[in-house]
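User: Teach me something about this protein's shape.
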Amino acid sequence: MPFPTVYKMTVENLLNQYLEHQLSGKASYHVARRIIRQLFNDLRNYDKHKLTPLQVLTWHSEHRQTPHHANRALGILRAAYRWGLPLGLTSQDPTTRIKKHPTESRSRYLSRAELQQLLAALCQEPAQFRTYVLLLIYTGCRRSEARLAKWEDIDFEHRLWRKPKVKAGRWHVVPLATQAIEALRRLPHKNEWIFPGMKGGPWSKSTVAKRWVQFRKKAGLSTVRIHDLRRTAASHMVINGENLSVVQQMLDHSSLQQTAIYARLNTATLARALQANADRLSTGY
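Assistant: First, the predicted structure itself:
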């Protein structure tokens, strides 16, 4: 669809053009559209050529209570203005000097009691969703890796999952626990996808998101995000004494530094070492 001959002058119009011509068909489209609908009421009627850095700063600051959402909204506005510059849709970028709100990295993982609560609730779910969640817990995989998994990726004989084109840009082979293999064996083979959608492709991001929100509410785990399951898999391995390099291999981190955040969880090993050292010191060896 070509651009209209006469452009409206509002920020809302710029954002709509950015959505239609730049993000349409991309995975980020629906997320960006939702954020625009929720966070841009105070900016949408401004003249896009006259929007000032101070106005952007004021708007961004008003959403500091939800820093992650505010930062994503700022990123969308910045991307729209920079996309529009070479097209003549914008004449300047008013977001250039606006800094993102500081945020804390999320470290939420499920306790043993919460894991039991989740597993009990999963028993009431359809087999495909139950297997999807179990795959996340048992392998620590990314949600998109499970969502896009194909039957050809699973080696049932050797209990291996070969994940193609992962985030790090290389193949990643993961051994599958007996529980994961058994859950997969019970699923029907409808097409090439392990978790097929309604139109012949895999589950969509929105399908997974909606099902997870419904499930966590029924399970009484409303604060648990689906990515917390990956963090849970890694955390419990470390808590139970597994070497960080093993956890790194499971998560397919490119460096041990990415995995090092989990080191603080293994306090049991440290406690034993400190106690043994204190015993030696107090007795003079």
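Now, about its shape. The chain has a mean pLDDT of 87. The longest strand covers residues 160-163. If you'd like, I can walk through any region in more detail.
User: That's plenty for now, thanks!
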